[in-house]
Design brief:
The structure is a single chain. The longest helix is centred in the C-terminal third of the chain and has 25 residues. It is globular, with a radius of gyration of 20 Å. The strands form 2 sheets. It has a 6-stranded antiparallel beta sheet. It has a two-stranded antiparallel sheet with strand order 1-2. The chain is an alpha+beta fold. Helix 2 crosses helix 4. It has 11 helices and 8 strands. Helix content is 47%, strand content 20%. It comes from Methylobacterium frigidaeris. This is Pectin degradation repressor protein KdgR. GO terms for molecular function: DNA binding; DNA-binding transcription factor activity.
């Protein structure tokens, strides 16, 4: 059964919330109606209900995600002890290397970024907390994909892959070849495949008892990526993946 045919009010609410969530600015009602293709009366009724539940809130002449939805969503990283385990380990890495660390989960063809520790010298990333990227376009995504079998990847991804930059992998066969190296080394790498000027190293953490498939990554401007930096980050990101996995297991 298609989920959007199952419970109309819930599935339509999800459509509206997704439209609001995708914007960095308050979203007007007319835009929601245009993008959702839902009847005017349905949109107004659902907006009123979602606002009363504090899932969304008014901001000027539009709507933004509400505090209640943030409260509910934050449970995702509290469960399994993800948030506390990640922060305990990632903060040490940031203190030592002054580079960003991110935690991501696999969700079908995308990686969802669920936690991040920023250094003093913060860098501009396309992967904010809660954002999604095509799973094949980042080191973090490759680390997650490498935990799957080739047959699972073939079932998951099309032959031709969308690109984010001119350096993104465009063919599934090329991606699978790359993932064979990731499986052998335990380390995934991308150079400007999702963001120009940035390199990324990532390592697979594991699958939690609640079936969250996790990986951890660090990103660094290519201008700072000398041989010593490369060696340190490659070694450390693999080590903290192991430490996070052990800490999550110990707290369950």
């Amino acid at each position: 059964m298609n989920i959007y045919d199952a419970v109309p009010a819930v599935s339509r609410s999800d459509i509206i919330l997704s439209i609001i969530n995708a914007s960095s600015w308050p979203v007007r009602t007319n835009f929601i109606m245009e993008m959702s293709k839902l009847p005017r009366s349905t949109v107004y009724n659902l907006l009123d209900t979602l606002e009363s539940l504090r899932w969304i809130q008014r901001s000027g002449d539009g709507y933004v995600i509400g505090v209640r939805l943030f409260e509910l969503g934050s449970a995702y990283v509290r469960q399994d002890g993800l948030q506390s385990a990640f922060r305990a380990i990632a903060s040490e890495f940031v203190t030592t290397h002054n580079e960003v660390v991110q935690l991501g989960v696999l969700d079908k063809r995308e990686v969802v970024y669920v936690a991040r520790e920023d250094p003093v010298r913060a860098i501009r990333l396309v992967s904010d907390i809660g954002s999604r990227l095509p799973v094949h376009c980042s080191a973090l995504g490759k680390a997650l994909l490498a935990s799957l079998t080739d047959s699972e990847i073939i079932e998951l991804l099309p032959d031709q892959l969308e690109t984010m930059t001119e350096h993104s992998i465009t063919r599934r066969d090329d991606l699978i070849h790359c993932l064979n190296s990731v499986r052998k080394s335990g380390l995934a790498y991308d150079r400007e495949e999702s963001t120009l000027g940035l390199a990324c190293f990532a390592s697979f953490i594991g699958v939690t008892p609640l079936e969250k498939r996790l990986a951890v990554s660090t990103s660094v401007p290519i201008s700072r990526l000398d041989d010593q930096c490369r060696h340190e980050l490659k070694t450390e990101i693999c080590e903290i993946a192991v430490r996070i996995r052990r800490l999550i297991s110990a707290r369950l």
